[in-house]
Amino acid sequence: MNIISRGFRGRHRPDGDRLPPGQYLVDDFPVLSAGPTPRVPLERWEFAIDTEAEQTHRWSWQEFMALPSETPTVDIHCVTKWTKLDTTWEGVSLDVLFEDVESAAEYALVYSYGGYTTNLPLEDLLDGKAWIVHRFDGEDLEPRHGGPARLIVPHLYFWKSAKWVRGIRLLNEDWPGFWETAGYHNYGDPWREQRYEGD
Amino acid sequence: MRRLVWRAAELAEIVTETATARTLRFRVPEWPGHLAGQHVDVRLTAEDGYTAQRSYSLAGPADGDLVDLTVETAPDGEVSPYLTEVIEVGDQVELRGPVGGWFVWRPESKAPVVLVAGGSGIVPLMAMVRARRQAGSQVPFRLLYSLRDPGRRYYAEELRRPDPGLDVSYLYTRSAPPGASRPAGRIMLDDLAEGGWPASFEPDCYVCGPTAFVEAAADLLLALGHAPERIRTERFG
Ligand SMILES: Cc1cc2nc3c(=O)[nH]c(=O)nc-3n(C[C@H](O)[C@H](O)[C@H](O)COP(=O)(O)OP(=O)(O)OC[C@H]3O[C@@H](n4cnc5c(N)ncnc54)[C@H](O)[C@@H]3O)c2cc1C
């Protein structure tokens, strides 16, 4: 039973069924990250998948851009409680990147330029659930939103959608990332309000 | 596993900071304590069961079961106008925390500190200033506080009082008071070069405020040679 705050009425936004509990809608695009924005020159950029057997699959920017791309339109949900509906991205499905990867690992640790990490079960990246994107709303992805390229995993809280993504390490055991070791939930399902450890 | 529970919080005292901001002192029975820089989630529930939650930084170290938040009215906002204009002493909200283990200052830390605040971004940084004083820490602090005009100053009186080892510079963006040494304008390289510590001192830098401000200030710190891993940021969106 919640405690009622006398005199509070609230705004009662109508879009209930697309808004996970505790979230509110925004039209702008807030930015959240733990440190300064890394700037990654494209000629030095690369993306890698490292398997548990220490095999590395690597793409340069040019190779990455030559892969077939998709333009998913998805809703995104940040743990700081904003939700943005119908965001359109362009990038490469993780299914494409994982095509030639042999692995029996269950866990993925995503790592970024600048040192950020976040973990999730590998299955949450596959089957059309996640993309490495380089464009937002028809424009190249700005550095503050994670450019040149970021991960998008729309069905989890947005801290899982690592900005400035650099690679994915496949692991047999789960390895909590940056926010996950700082008190945030290990999985982060917005529909179950898995914000903090223990939720 | 530690579970963050919602706790009843009763408003015990209101301190007016500016025309649009006030500090709310809540009594939260069995508050577990917190570190300077952490925040709480506040949940409001209307009579018909509708709820809204927002995050607010803790403005000072815990004082038993009392915790302070300082809230600025966001025009047309849903939650902040309630906290700055409607709620009265004796009313209740729910609160849970503390949250956040990264944007924190620990009293045992020995590194010099640069605090860079934009607007209400001063709140968690003030918690660090207060925690330093409470712990009797000798670590040198420098605070740069960017704000629109002198009327926007939070904690004005407290920051005017001498606090050995703490230097405060105000950076007014729209209108500076008469006699100010710096013309009104946005934060620049020179401000951080003069009001902060040189990168060679390896200070811990904490930057907090609206996104655009945090972006600008963090980039300037990088340009001055501060290592990215020593720059911690908190964006209020
Ligand atoms: C970690 C963290 C710590 C924070 N600490 C503090 C703190 O110490 N002090 C503090 O004051 N804030 C703090 N904030 C910000 C705070 O959480 C809220 O975002 C802020 O109080 C605004 O909430 P609100 O409900 O009043 O506004 P919201 O209803 O969320 O609206 C936000 C803005 O969007 C605009 N807006 C909303 N709805 C509409 C609409 N329909 N049409 C047009 N514009 C609209 C409003 O003008 C408003 O300015 C913190 C945020 C974070 C993430």
Automatic annotation (TrEMBL), chain A:
Entry-linked CDD domains: arch_bact_SO_family_Moco
A Pfam family reported for this protein in Swiss-Prot or TrEMBL: Oxidored_molyb
Residue stretches making up the Oxidoreductase molybdopterin-binding domain: 35-179
Superkingdom of origin: Bacteria
Protein name per Swiss-Prot or TrEMBL: DMSO/TMAO reductase YedYZ molybdopterin-dependent catalytic subunit
Source organism (scientific name): Nonomuraea angiospora
Lineage: Bacteria, Bacillati, Actinomycetota, Actinomycetes, Streptosporangiales
UniProtKB/TrEMBL annotation, chain B:
Organism: Nonomuraea angiospora
Domain FAD-binding FR-type: 4-105
InterPro entries: Cbr1-like_FAD-bd_dom (IPR008333), FAD-bd_FR_type (IPR017927), FNR_nucleotide-bd (IPR039261), MRET (IPR050415), OxRdtase_FAD/NAD-bd (IPR001433), Riboflavin_synthase-like_b-brl (IPR017938)
Assigned keywords, A-Z: 2Fe-2S, Iron, Iron-sulfur, Metal-binding
Protein name per the record: Ferredoxin-NADP reductase
CDD domains: FNR_iron_sulfur_binding_3
Pfam families: FAD_binding_6 (PF00970), NAD_binding_1 (PF00175)
Iron-sulfur is among the record's keywords: yes
Cofactor entry: FAD
